[in-house]
User: Fold this.
Amino acid sequence: MKILDVDIVKAYIRMCSDGWEQGWHERNGGNLTYRLKKEEVEQCRPFFHAPGAWVKMGVSAENLAGEYFLTTGSGKYFRNVALDPEHSIGIVEVNKAGDSWRIIWGLEGGAKPTSEFPSHFMNHSVRAAATGGTYRVIYHAHPANLIALTYILPLTARDFTRALWQSATECPVVFPGGVGVVPWMVPGGSEIALATSKLMKEYDAVVWTHHGLFCSGPDFDTTFGLMHTIEKAAQIHVLALSAGQGKIRQTISADNLRAIAKEFGVTLREEFLN
Ligand code: 2HA
Ligand code: ZN
Assistant:
């Protein structure tokens, strides 16, 4: 038995490979973190090494004190995760103050958690609080069509949500809460972390203008599925605009969206329909 035989570690690595295969992770683009359940920590514990030093994050969250996270490494390539997990990913423990991490497995050779760890951490904090601890996954990727839309749509949650909902009939069912939009900001720091986590109080998915998308969810299937659904909707919108030379002849109407919501028992934001 190795840590790489633990089910949750296998599932995490599979999600990294799936994202790479979708083309969302050029070079070292994107990052994935997972907040381990107590029993998963115990399954991994026999493989933990002597902990590294505590490192301050620049952000803090009391509700994540003492939690353990699987994380991709800063500067590491999704393409390499399955081939070389020990150097590409790791497990970190968060201290009792909820403001520092230390490495207890993986990230070998002096690697560190993703440069976006502050954003992931704050998003975990607000999504865990909003869902009674159910949400465990934060996933950041660079899907091309969604990024392309940040050059042509107004940068509002309403404009992005409507365009995506209207691009495929199942979209309002998959993300009835819509998507938030963060304006262009320098990545990697606490400023963009706080701006994103503010929106994550309300949204499962947040667009980073000219950069990518953050998705959250309870498990890998749901979170990967959300990224996939949003990017596919964006692709359809780009295809329709390109093929129609910017002219959309017909679309899913606001009343159609209301009818979908009624049939599938989801609540759409009415202010995005009017
Ligand atoms: O390179 O995606 O946002 C990792 C990133 C930074
Ligand atoms: Zn990025």
Notes: The longest helix spans residues 220-243.
